[in-house]
Amino acid sequence: xxxxxxxxxxxxxxxxxxxxxxxxxxxxxxxxxxxxxxxxxxxxxxxxxxxxxxxxxxxxxxxxxxxxxxxxxxxxxxxxxxxx
Amino acid sequence: xxxxxxxxxxxxxxxxxxxxxxxxxxxxxxxxxxxxxxxxxxxxxxxxxxxxxxxxxxxxxxxxxxxxxxxxxxxxxxxxxxxxxxxxxxxxxxxxxxxxxxxxxxxxxxxxxxxxxxxxxxxxxxxxxxxxxxxxxxxxxxxx
Lengths: 84, 144
Description:
The complex is a heterodimer of chains A (84) and B (144).
Chain A: E1 3-10, H1 12-18, E2 22-28, H2 33-43, H3 48-51, E3 55-58, E4 61-62, E5 74-78
Chain B: E1 6-9, H1 15-22, E2 29-36, E3 40-41, E4 44-53, H2 55-72, E5 77-83, E6 85-88, E7 92-100, H3 106-120, E8 123-129, E9 132-135
Parallel strand pairs in B: 1-5
Antiparallel strand pairs in B: 2-7, 3-4, 4-6, 4-8, 5-7, 8-9
Helix pairs in contact in B: 2-3
């Protein structure tokens, strides 16, 4: 099965919890955002407390957990927004 | 001078400057909103606020909010600039300018804009307080 690669960015309190602004991901074809979050929990300490409630974007648009990832996708995980 | 209508910037921002971005000869009215760093929040003494954004996503989201407004109200142009970085009490964090031929609907459009920013723009703020620092999240992020 082909592999897909991309990046995942973290922001604000979630970025501080995981201790870095982004990581690379490498998953089998067919993976969803949910797959990615499960994969990250094994390799990114600090993500666990956010895994169930992070907001998600794929390629800079809001996305759902069942969104299918494509090779090269830029995923972002972040807390509920608080701008203004 | 930067003429972007929808921008995330680390530079200080002003109502006048953002208004100018939205004004054209078709415009006879500009309604503006400025969000300002308040020195208290829910009884806490706030020294400063640090704003962080996902700019590559936030700028298109601000533009989307502008499109939503133009679809609902007879508005000629919208400009929204949100600042990031460390801001002291009294500094301007966000400016919205609603430019239209006439004022009808413009006040309502401005109120809608700040509501939508708080709802969907990927921007976050951290309060610096006497006792430390705290990130604000969604519903508890009471603001302007």
